[in-house]
Amino acid sequence: MKKYFITGGCGFIGSNFVHYILRGKQDALVINLDKLTYAGNLKNLEQFENDERYIFYHGDICDQQIVRKIFVDHKPDYLINFAAESHVDRSIGKPDDFIQTDIFGAFTLLETAREHNIDRFIQISTDEVYGSIEKGSFSETDPLMPRNPYSASKAGADRLAYSYFATYDLPVIITRASNNFGPYQFPEKLIPLFVTNAMENEKLPIYGDGKNIRDWLYVSDHCAAIQYIADNGVIGEIYNIGGGNELTNLEITDIILEETNKPNSLKKFVQDRLGHDRRYSLNCDKLIALGWQPKHNFSQAMQSTINWYRDNEQWWKPLKSGEYLEYYKQNYKGL
Ligand SMILES: NC(=O)c1ccc[n+]([C@@H]2O[C@H](COP(=O)([O-])OP(=O)(O)OC[C@H]3O[C@@H](n4cnc5c(N)ncnc54)[C@H](O)[C@@H]3O)[C@@H](O)[C@H]2O)c1
User: Which H or E run includes 114?
Assistant: First the structure.
């Protein structure tokens, strides 16, 4: 039986990963450590609450006591570090938590893993560590040029994790994925924000000229890639994980308006994000050579994502209130 120590498992990608493992493997144990910030939601995993293959710890990855307790009590085979502050806009407004969780939290996990046996330490990094690229695509050996506090804190954790492989032989693998979409994504990120705003006949706030390009990866493809890399990846290596679906934000907006049958008049151009990276693009030849590539068709995955938000209003409606509304008004002034 494989034991997975997952951090940030109540967030978007982490919870999809827990679903992916527990649906696909009868003989797995998942131990999830999550601080339950605004982005962590127990509802994402409520169907596993009474499943003996799932154990939840409410706590902070910066707290070495709880991290150590999990190592001692459960002796995990894999540690997969999803936990992070993950929203670029929030990092621009208030970077503090990003430095604490993304860097110091990763440090705490690495230090504790070093005291114990672990088969794999997977650090979930991001394509944003490379910075922006006008033409061509980033390979794993390209220099890192993060340009906002989120991507800089992720770059710090990425390189710190590598240093624990190079210095202490910790079996670290680093993944750098492109923009994910799918169910359970907090409705502050582009796709769920626009889908849910369209459903509520609210404006879709498009930054700048809307021509920033992202490569979109369906979250279940991302989960499959992480699992594949944990089982087959080479220790000490970095793997880019891209979806191969580069689209401008305007193109994404048009797809959402068409699929939700809403008018163009819902589009609203707003002041651009500070230091907004123009284009992200990944070369994924290394992962393809290892034997993995995404399986989902982009249009179908978008359709089923939109359907999920349509069918799960009770999941996202409560999230778009209170503190969220205050933040939203601050971020998109004039809407
Ligand atoms: N979303 C994307 O498109 C994307 C793309 C590439 C990489 N990533 C990376 O994947 C990981 C997951 O991203 P996501 O979009 O699911 O993020 P998310 O914001 O939806 O979830 C983050 C989770 O981490 C938890 N958390 C935050 N601080 C914590 C702490 N100190 N201790 C324990 N738990 C804590 C939160 O409660 C939440 O459950 C992040 O490391 C992110 O950098 C995300």
Answer: helix 106-115
pLDDT digits (tens, 9 = 90+) for 58-103: 999 999 999 999 999 999 999 999 999 999 999 999 999 999 999 9
Q: Which residues line ligand 1 (CB under 6 A)?
A: 7-8, 10-14, 33-37, 39-40, 60-62, 82-86, 101, 105, 124, 126, 154, 177, 179-180, 186
**Domain map (residue ranges) of the chain:** 2-181+216-241
Backbone torsions φ then ψ of 67, nearest 5 degrees? -65, -45
156 CA from centroid of ligand 1 (Å): 15
pLDDT tens digits, 15-35: 999 999 999 989 999 999 999
| CB 244 within 8 Å of CB 212 | no
What backbone torsions phi and psi does residue 311 show, to the nearest 5 degrees? -85, -10
The encoded tokens of residue 6 equal 């997952």
Give ∠ CA 44-48-119 in degrees, rounded to 5: 95
Give me the count of residues in the chain.
335
Ligand 1 mean position, distance from CA 331 (Å): 20
Which residues partner with 110 through β-bridges? none
Q: pTM value?
A: 0.97
DSSP character at residue 279: B
- Class at the top of the CATH hierarchy for domain 2-181+216-241: alpha beta
